[in-house]
From TrEMBL:
Gene3D superfamilies: 5' to 3' exonuclease, C-terminal subdomain, DNA helicase RuvA subunit, C-terminal domain, Nucleic acid-binding proteins
Domain Helix-hairpin-helix DNA-binding motif class: 72-91, 107-126
Protein name, as recorded: Holliday junction branch migration complex subunit RuvA
Matching SUPFAM superfamilies: DNA helicase RuvA subunit, C-terminal domain, Nucleic acid-binding proteins, RuvA domain 2-like
Comment block on domains: Has three domains with a flexible linker between the domains II and III and assumes an 'L' shape. Domain III is highly mobile and contacts RuvB.
Superkingdom as given in the UniProt entry: Bacteria
Keywords, in A-Z order: Cytoplasm, DNA damage, DNA recombination, DNA repair, DNA-binding
Keyword Repeat: no
Subunit record text: Homotetramer. Forms an RuvA(8)-RuvB(12)-Holliday junction (HJ) complex. HJ DNA is sandwiched between 2 RuvA tetramers; dsDNA enters through RuvA and exits via RuvB. An RuvB hexamer assembles on each DNA strand where it exits the tetramer. Each RuvB hexamer is contacted by two RuvA subunits (via domain III) on 2 adjacent RuvB subunits; this complex drives branch migration. In the full resolvosome a probable DNA-RuvA(4)-RuvB(12)-RuvC(2) complex forms which resolves the HJ.
Length: 199
């Protein structure tokens, strides 16, 4: 089992990061929010979870241990595999996920691609007593800090993917009206990328 990976970031794509460890490039599948924090050439440490299949070994990389723990826990719900677990964390932060499950917010869960009403209800039923309450890590930031954070993360994500700073700034501005009170960095990064691809 590989618990974490530490090394210089060799490459960042839309869905993966490559970290160089001992002369070997390890490819990790990550959420847009995690990828937005990575810079090519900088050393990063990402907690990881390895998924072994008959025909593949896949490493998933995470922002922190909390995100990794949620990823592994949600897979204990029937019908939730690693790809769906990652999609859940791309749309909802660990605390938002705990809140959605704890308050039986089916609507929040169905925002995740691949989760319909029945699957959402099953996830709530199976995980309600296991995910625990929200840790409150996201609610301590004020609105100004939160706004600054999502802007920085989306901008860094775009420049990390090779877009020039000025174009990245324009893309961030173009999706600002979609941010709302609790910005979803992953969704905003995807929207900004769509804006750039149309330009």
């Amino acid at each position: 089992m590989i618990a974490f990976v530490k090394g210089p970031v060799a490459q960042v794509t839309l869905s993966t990061a490559v970290l160089e460890v001992g002369g070997v490039g390890l490819e990790l599948l990550c959420t847009p929010g995690t990828l937005a924090t990575l810079r090519t050439g900088q050393v990063a440490t990402l907690p990881t979870s390895m998924v072994v299949r008959e025909d593949s070994l896949t490493l998933f990389g995470f922002l922190d241990e909390d995100e990794k723990a949620c990823f592994e826990l949600v897979q204990t719900a029937s019908g939730v595999g690693p790809k769906l677990a990652q999609a859940m964390l791309a749309v909802l932060s660990p605390d938002a996920l705990r809140t959605a499950v704890g308050t039986e917010d089916v609507k929040a869960l169905t925002r995740v691609p691949g989760i319909g009403q029945k699957v959402a209800q099953r996830i709530i039923l199976e995980l309600k007593d296991r995910l625990g309450p929200a840790l409150g890590t996201t609610s301590t930031r004020g609105p100004v800090a939160a706004a600054q954070t999502w802007r920085d993360q989306v901008h860094q994500g775009l420049t990390g993917l090779g877009w020039p700073g000025k174009e990245a700034e324009r893309a961030v501005d173009s999706v600002a009206d979609q941010a709302g009170d609790s910005p979803d960095v992953g969704a905003l990064l995807r929207a900004a990328l769509q804006t750039l691809s149309r330009a």
